[in-house]
Each structure stands twice: as C-alpha cells, then as structure tokens.
Amino acid sequence: MSHIFHHITELLDSGASGTLVVVTQVAGHTPQVVGAKMVVKEDGSLIGTVGGGRFEHVIIEKALDVQRSGVAATVSLRLKAELGMCCGGEMEVYMEPIVPAERLICFGAGHVAEHTVALASTCGFQAVVVDERSDWNSQERFASAKDRCVESHIDFLSSFEFRPTDIVVIMTHNHDHDREILAKVLRVHQGYVGMIGSTRKVDKSFKQLRLEGFKPDDLSRVHAPIGLDILAESPAEISVSVVGELIRYRHHRVSKKKTHGASVKSMNRPRVEKAVRSDAYLPASEDDAGVA
After folding, report:
1. Taking a C-beta distance cutoff of 8 angstroms, is the pair 223, 245 a contact?
2. Computed over its alpha carbons, how large is the radius of gyration of the chain?
C-alpha cells in the first residue's frame, strides 16, 4: 500500500484535503488486517480499502466528518452486532485529516512583509509574495517564499484562484492599494483576510468600502489592524504579532491545549492606538508617502 503515500503527496500538492484511515486493531474474523490503509477524498471517493461492505461505508462517513472537523479520531466497531455483517470480528481504525499547508498570500514586499514571510515559513506556511517592485520582491529578501509574483496586484488578482484554506495578508507600500486589494479579496475569498495599518487607516478604509457597497458582515471578516496586541513597534516585532495571530487562527478549531499562555490585561501605560502598522518605523517623509 505504499502507493497510498504517493497519492497523499499528490493531494497535498494540489491543495486538496482528505482523510487517511488505518486499521489499528482487529479481533476475530475481519475483512482486513492491521496496517490496511485507505484515503477518503473530499468527494467521498477512495484510494485503497479497509475491507469494503457496510464497515467501509460507515468508515467513509466518519472519515468525512473528521475531514470537516479537522480532528483525528479512533473508531471501533463490532462487525456483526453493530453492522449486521457476516464476519463476527471487531475492527478499530485511526483516522487522520490530510490538510495541505496553508498558503500565505502576502501582498507587499516591505520590511514587515520580509520578516513576516521568513517567520511564517518556519511555522509551516507556504508564502506567495505579490509586489511589482523587483528590487523589493527579490530572491535575496524572500528566500523562504514558495513563490514570488513580480507583478501588480491588479494583474495577479485577475487570474489567481484562491483556495478556501488560503490566508491573505495585505501590507503594501500604498494605503490605496491595500484598500483595493481588500475589496477584491472580500469578493472572491471566504477565508482569512488580514490588513496591516493604524486604527485610523483601517477606519478610513472601512468607511470607503461601505460607500462602495460592502456590508458590516463583509467587513467583520477582516482582521484589521492585523496582529496580536503585544505593543509591537519594529518590523520584526510586528511580524511576531502577525504570525502569532495566524497560528492562533490555524489552531483555534482543533487545538486541545489546556493552557494558552499569558494574556495582557494592563501595561500601566496609556494606549493611543494599536501599534501594528506598516509605517510606524519610518521617517515622517516616508510615512506621509505611505512607503512600506
């Protein structure tokens, strides 16, 4: 059954999901042995088998549930007593969701993007950097990126096909570009969307988007200003807050951790606005120009 793993690799490369099913225990007369494997694809089609018949039919339904929940499970069934099969044995299977690595679609190749892509890549995200400035969106600056698209965001968005699992982070050098990208992405992508910037910039962008017809429910999907509130200031610190939020988003449905770390309640200092912004570390002249 080694070809199973070849098919799993193909699924992951295509961005598709599935469930790996492995027989872990058997007792009595059973249609398969320990170690038998099967992959259940998103559409319910199969690669391999764990025995066929009523048992396999039930396992397929449970495997699809595992796929939807993203949580691994173990199922044990008595073939005759519970399923009415002529085999009188018992089988246990372990089911593991097959989940492709999330693509991180990063619009912008500025200082924060450089640190964010590097850190996100070490955490298993496959980064795609979109920026038409070849001197910024270079191999040297984004060596860990899976892909670099040196083209305008307009050209990129005209042909790119988003996956439901894609994570979109908007941090370009131009506030108007950020808003244009956000508007387009909200129309075609239902997954995570985050935008960097001061609270003032975010409020201004949202006001314009409401004038363009976007509803409160649309804007409520946007994580902006992006990043956990750790009072970040430098590009490297901001990237930590951004990637931290992405990790929390990745695990929020399936994590079984009992401890979640410290929460910041009070830093005994006045807060003016959230310090996750693309221009917070730049000279005033570049800030005014919106350069990231």
Report:
1. yes
2. 24
Ramachandran angles phi, psi of 194, nearest 5°: -130, 145
Extract the tokens encoding 137: 């969106």
Q: How far apart are CA 264 and CA 285, in angstroms?
A: 33
Q: Please answer whether residues 91 and 21 qualify as being in contact, where contact means their C-beta atoms are separated by less than 8 angstroms.
A: no
Nearest to 108 by CA among 153, 159, 52: 153
20-46 per-position pLDDT tens digit: 999 999 999 899 999 999 999 999 999
Give the predicted TM-score (pTM) of the model.
Answer: 0.74
Q: Which residues pair with 106 in a beta bridge?
A: 129, 169
Q: Does residue 13 sit in helix, strand or coil?
A: helix
Tell me the C-alpha distance between 131 and 193, whole Å: 17
Give the whole-angstrom CA distance, residue 61 versus residue 58. 5
Residue 244 main-chain phi, psi, to 5 deg: -60, -40
In total, the chain counts a number of residues equal to 292
One-letter amino acid for residue 101 of the chain: A
Q: Within the chain, which residue ranges are assigned CATH 3.40.50.720? A: 103-289
Starting at the edge strand found earlier in the chain, the sheet holding 103-107 runs 147-149, 126-130, 103-107, 167-170, 192-195, 222-223
* CA distances to 71, 138, 167, 239 from 184, in Å: 32, 25, 14, 24
Identify whether the C-beta of residue 79 lies closer than 8 Å to the C-beta of residue 106: no
Q: What is the CATH number of domain 103-289?
A: 3.40.50.720
Torsion of CA 278, 282, 284, 290, to 10 degrees: -40
* CA count, 13 A, side-chain hemisphere, 135: 0
DSSP 3-state of 80:
helix
Q: How far apart are CA 25 and CA 23, in angstroms?
A: 6
**pLDDT tens digits, 252-281:** 766 666 666 666 554 444 444 444 444 444
Residues 287 and 292: their CA atoms lie apart, in Å, by 8
Tokens of residue 292, six digits: 């990231």
